[in-house]
Design goal:
The protein has 72 residues and is mainly alpha-helical. The chain has three helices and no strands.
Amino acid sequence: MQLGRYEESFEYDKDAVEIRRALGEDEPHKYRPLLAKSLYSTAWDLRQLGRYEEAFEYDKDTVEISRASWRG
């Protein structure tokens, strides 16, 4: 069941991105995967809201961070 609360979800996900970016400054190996997950969730919310250009920017960050995590 979908409740359609994407705007509210977007705000929470955006906060998670901010927190995980800050945590990742000290321990990137630990927080990069979590940051990538939050970025992806934020992009999903934006797509559901029809904000495709913004979602694309979050998707690009997701890929960059995922690559950095993969490379170590």
